[in-house]
Structure formats: C-alpha cells, structure tokens
Amino acid sequence: MIIAPGNHDIVRQAEPQPALPEVVQRYFQGDMLFVGNPARVTLGGVSILIYHGRSIDDLVLRLPSVSYAEPEKAMIEMLKRRHLSPIYGSRVSIAPEHEDHYVITRPPAILHCGHVHTIGIARYKGVAVINSGTWQSQTDFQKKMNIQPQPAIAPIVDLATMKVRKLIFA
C-alpha cells in the first residue's frame, strides 16, 4: 500500500508536500510505502505518477469542460499541459523550490489522483487516468461545492494488462 498526503493531512499545505511524518507512520504496518505529493513510483515495471489532485479545483473553476463529476477530464488537461498544476496563483499554494516538481517530463503509465472524492477513469495517449474516489459520504463542504462523492468504490488496475475495473463495496 502506498500512502501519499493531501490537503487534510498533517503536513504543510503548500505543495509539494513531504511524506507523512514518522510519528504518524508508526501507526501503520511496516509494509506501507509513504511518499510525498506528488510522487513517482514503479510497481511491477509500471510507472505511476501520484498526485493528490488539489489543482483539479483550479481547473474546474477555469475550464468549462471540466467538472468535479468527471475529474478524469481535469487530469487529462494536466497531461496535455505536461504539468500537474498548470494554473498558477489560484487555490493551489506552491512552495518556492529550485525545481518545479509538477512538470511531467515523461508520461507515466498511470496518473493517479484522489482529491475530489469522485471516481474518474479514462485513457489519454496510452496513460491510464484514475481518480480514486473516497470511503467518506458527502461532507457539508462538499454539499456547498456541489460535489457528489462516490464512496466505497475502489478502482483496481491489472498491471499486466492495464485494464481497470471497479470494486464496489457498498
């Protein structure tokens, strides 16, 4: 299991975010992999780019074709622009660093996000685009933002075939 932080976790809000602190990691089993946000990992030879997805908020505000109901469209826009946070100065607070950690220098096999709590699955130029949803029902904030979460659905990727299916737990 890979655990990356997001905007509700005990790390700085400015991105990129470090992995969860060791004091938190101790609450988990030893076989977990803790990464920062964003992170690039390789599983079974498959390149995976993990980004919490906070910039989806900016893309929903600016692009009429993008919505919280279809987060995969925002993720495709990230791939088209070769940048995980292509709109600067809006909702995503980006820490000043020597390197831009959001530039997509080489396309991954899988781009994974989760920020908006809705399921989104698509393919774009050979990249599997997956927004993984949530286990939590709609919050008051989500109700105000007109976000309809899709709890208890887990996208599963067969790394040998790259086929994606949904496991429904509800």
What does this structure look like?
This protein has about 170 residues and is an alpha/beta fold. The chain contains four helices and nine strands. It has helices at about 20-25, 55-60, 70-80, 140-145, and strands spanning about 1-5, 35, 40-45, 45-50, 110-115, 120-125, 125-130, 155-160, 165-170. It has a five-stranded mixed β-sheet, with helices on one face. Helix 1 links the parallel strand 1 (about 1-5) and strand 2. It is globular, with a radius of gyration of 15 Å. The two termini are about 20 Å apart. The mean pLDDT is about 95.
Head-to-tail CA distance between termini: 21 Å
Strand content: 15-25%
Helix segment tally: 4
**Mean model confidence by pLDDT:** 94
> What is the number of strand segments?
9
Specify the biggest β-sheet: 5 strands, mixed
Element-by-element helix/strand order: EHEEEHHEEEHEE
What are its keywords?
170 residues, alpha/beta, two-stranded parallel ribbon, 4 helices
Would you kindly provide a brief summary of this structure?
By secondary structure, the protein is α/β, with parallel strands linked by helices.
How do the strands and helices of this protein lay out in sequence?
Blueprint: E1 2-3, H1 22-25, E2 33-34, E3 39-43, E4 46-50, H2 55-62, H3 71-81, E5 110-113, E6 119-124, E7 127-132, H4 140-144, E8 153-158, E9 163-168
Parallel strand pairs: 1-2, 4-5, 5-7
Antiparallel strand pairs: 3-4, 6-7, 8-9
